[in-house]
What we know:
By secondary structure, this protein is α/β, with parallel strands linked by helices. About 40% of the residues lie in helices and about 15% in strands. It has 15 helices and 15 strands. It has helices spanning about 5-10, 40-50, 75-85, 100-105, 130-140, 160-170, 175-185, 205-220, 230-235, 250-265, 305-315, 335-350, 360-370, 385-390, 395-400, and strands spanning about 15-20, 55-60, 90-95, 115, 145-150, 170-175, 195-200, 220-225, 265-270, 270-275, 285-290, 300, 320-325, 355-360, 380. The strands form three sheets. It has a six-stranded parallel sheet, sandwiched between helices. A six-stranded parallel sheet has the order 9-8-7-13-14-15, with helices on both faces. A three-stranded antiparallel sheet has the order 11-10-12. Helix 9 packs across helix 10. The structure holds adenosine-5'-diphosphate and magnesium ion. Magnesium ion binds near residues 359, 360, 361 and 383.
Amino acid sequence: MKTAHDLIQGGALRGQRVLVRSDLNVPLDSEGTITDDGRVRASVPTIKALSEAGARVVVCAHLGRPKGAPEARYSLAPVARRLGELLGTPVTFATDTVGESARSAVAGLGDGQVALLENLRFNPGETSKDDAVRGGFAGELATLADVFVSDGFGVVHRRQASVYDVALLLPHAVGGLVQTEVEVLRRLTESVERPYAVVLGGAKVSDKLGVIANLMQTADRLLIGGGMSFTFLAAQGHEVGKSLLEADQIDVVKGYLAQAEELGVEIILPTDIVVATAFSAEAEHSVVDAHSIPADRMGLDIGPESARAFAAKLADARTVFWNGPMGAFEMAPYAAGTLVVAQALAEATSKGALTVIGGGDSAAAVRQLGFEDSQFGHISTGGGASLEYLEGKALPGLTVLEG
Ligand code: ADP
Ligand code: MG
């Protein structure tokens, strides 16, 4: 697989138009202000290196889930400004993806200059399931460049026009961010230092249950909090009230519990839960036994006893992978479990453990709670992509770069 670094070393990039697929999918508040610019910062080194090599850099990315048509609230315009600030040089913003604005923005680039195209998902071709439709859009993107660099780790598990199809049409290379991400994740699948603990939580329960079967083959301990824990508690026969529950996954989870016992993998579930009357910071809330959640309450965080137990299971770990907040951390009354786990990871890191945080909300959580990126081994920019990698799945955006 050719790397962007190889291209730069080769010295032939000056004046070349390089299309870079980055992951700039950042959270925005209702005023359009970026609330966590981690993904923009993570994208800067590759863009900067290409620019310094004299390339005319055409960055493309998506934001949120628009339905194949322009929608002002998903515009990448605020991201173009932030990217310019971080690069220390203005970024030309094209107000479309492959139209008039994009063509003139690219034509106007001098050597070393950078343009950002509008949200790729404003075009239905980006995510189409129809190969021909996707290929058509990729063909239009390809006319804007001479070379393609794939650096959006958060999307490499997607067979999308700007991730997959465009690599079939242009000479291509893998960017430094994707390389780093894959190298770190490889250390979680090969020659892992033990004890290896995996912490899972968050709200995308059905997406994440699948990874458990695979993680049990390598991990020594599985700590389950967040929305996911209620399907486990239910599988053990407990009432979970109005908490997040994937009722149709209870049998699957029962299977996991049995498998864990056979493999000698420890599964640690919360023993106490912060419950509330509603999904709101103002709702009346209290701590209850995890095995007696009242029918009219919903669990919104792991309780203090559980948080202490989780921290203890992380204290001597040599390798930790964490995906998914322990509670609805965006609301202060339900942030304590996530905070304690983040502290435990930071401590493990300072004792030399390899700690990896994956997932957009998990990364945003640790930053919102006041941690620095440097307190952890690695904060992945891709949640779904990192989980699919750990599941052992082939990621289309990576395999296509091998060809
Ligand atoms: P990530 O983006 O890190 O992969 P997810 O998207 O799966 O994580 O989940 C993040 C969301 O999960 C957060 O917005 C948080 O509020 C929510 N969450 C965590 N625990 C609970 C819970 N017990 N009930 C409802 N939502 C929860
Ligand atoms: Mg998320």
